[in-house]
Structure formats: C-alpha cells, structure tokens
Amino acid sequence: MRDLIVTENITLDGVIEATEGWFAPAGDDGVDESDVIAALNEQREAADAFLVGRATFEQMRGCWPHQTDDATGISEYLDRVSKYVVSRTLQDPGWDRTTVLRGPLTEEIQALKSAPGADTVVTGSMTLVHALIAAGLVDEYRLFVYPVVIGRGVRLFAEGTDVPALRLVEARAFRSGIVLLRYRPV
Amino acid sequence: MRKLIYSMGVSLDGFIAGPDGEIDWSAPDVELHRFHNEQTRELGAHLCGRRLYEEMLYWETAEENPSAAEHEREFARIWKRLPKIVFSTTLEKVVGNAKLAGDGVADEVARLKREPGKDLAVGGAGLAATCIELALVDEYRLFVSPVVLGGGTPFFPALERRIDLELVETRTFGSRVVYLRYR
Hints:
The structure holds 2 protein chains of 2 kinds. Chain A is an alpha/beta fold.
C-alpha cells in the first residue's frame, strides 16, 4: 500500500495557514536554505503522486506551469508528477496529468493507496488535510517547524481531533532554524 | 542580565495539559528527567502561578518517599532549594523556599532581572502568557511529545503580534521527545 504523507510548513504554535506570509522568515536575505531544499528534493524523489484540495490546486496551477527558468526543478516536477485534486465542483483541471477525485474521500484515497506506485504527498490543503486526519488516512506527518509563533490561523490539528499514538521517525534541524519533525501512527 | 525562561512539556498540537488537565502523557523517562534536573539546577529562581506552585508541593516531601528513584530524589533536592516566587490573588501563605510576590508581574520580573544571579524560569501557562504578552520571556524550551491531545491548556497564548525566534538547540530523548530551544 502506498503511503499518504502530509507535509506542511507549520509554526511553533501549530498553525499551517499562511497568515502574514510567515513562511518567509523575517530578514531572510542571505539565509542559506540549501539544506531545506535538499530535504524537500529527497521527499520529491520518493513520491510519484501529489494530492491537494481545490484551493491549493488552483493556487499552484496559477504559478507553476508558466515557470520556464525554475532552477529548483519544482516546476518541471509538478508538470510531470501525477496530480490528484479532491473536489466535487472542479470541472476541467487545466493541467496535464491531473485527476479530479469526486467520490467519497475514504474510497478515493484507499483506491489511490492500493494502486501500484510510490508515496503520495499532500501539502497545503488545510480542509482536505483535516478530513484525511479525521478519517485516519494519514501514514506520515512531515512537519517543517518554522521558528515563529503567529498566534492565530488554521492549525494542523483541529480542536477535538482524535489522532492515535504517534512514533517519532526523525527530528532534523536546518541552518535557518527550521526543524523537520516526522511522525507515523504507531 | 538574567534571562527569563519558559520551559514545558508540550503535545504535538501545542498543549501543556489535556482538556481534563491530563499530564501523564508528558512523564519523562530517566534520561529526560536527569536533563530537567540539570536545567533546574541552573536556575536562580522560579516564578509560579498558583496551580503550578500547588502541583509542585509534591516535591517538598518526595525525598522522604522510599520508593522514589534517585533521579527523582535529586530533583526534589534541587527544587526545594530553588527560590519560588508565587503570583496568586487567592493564596495567603506559601510553604518551602517560596514567597508570595508583592508586586505585579512586570515590576517583579524587571526587579529580578536587574539583580545579579542565575537565570529565572516561569510556569504554568497562565503566568507565562502574561510574561509573553509583556515581552518578558527571553527563551522558550519546548519538550514535544508524540501525542495529539485535541484540546487543553495551550503553551502559547493567542497573540496580537507574531514572535520571530532563533533556534538555539535541538535534542531528541529516547527517540520520542524532541527538545526545541529558542530565543
């Protein structure tokens, strides 16, 4: 069964919503992010599917396919990876190699996991991620913890959320002060 | 100048206690307990809200418990010696090496920071929230357990303004607990 990996940028107080653009650390000119980029590349190479909710999909579609000189390789990767969008309303996705998943979430995700292939990565997609967590469909959390406390915004784990016991897989600190924490259900 | 440290065990979703006050999930193993002992040894004083003060009264007599492990007895010795300053509008007296704060938080912390001595710590979350809002906290130490509680007492209060921090140190205990230290 393929793993479903939720990967998020997250504040120290657990917020994943990009309020006030905290993703870009204050005064980050000259901050060496090469180690974070390398970690993201490792993750990309292990995944062959990308799952998002409609809002995140439309944001990404708005930027990525038009970048012709993207040195990070992310643009080219997103163009060729199999993309899945969970949406009951999206008609034409308008991006090559994209499948819209319209059915009941658990069935669609189980079908995706049962198909042959490598990891499926979910990022952004706050509403979808909450639904995946509630349905017990997440196989791994990869949290890039930023050294910032934002105080408000949508959190990864909603109030009342019931998540079974987790096991720490890795804790890795980067030069910029970001810490990657990886957890899997026990 | 002395720094004010806010250090606590937190769940992965950022709570220091569960919805019914549960803290059993944060019980440290021996290695982590010893680490807490050493960090507490480095303190000159501890500011406490009433609830933390009352929870920590256990340690005033823990040394006498024959079934207490050596690392627990060691913590008890360190804690008993540590001057505690208790902020409470309801307590009339405190026991052990503790006194009730005479001033408000801002004045008390300002005075303590001016005095020579080892660093200060603050807990629990309510008193710490006041200190955070007054921009008095110099260092945050989070011991993250692999547990999602879904609610409870948050480590960080809701904020008007973001706080940008610098990562100082990380360490993993028993392949479970991740220590994140920021200033």
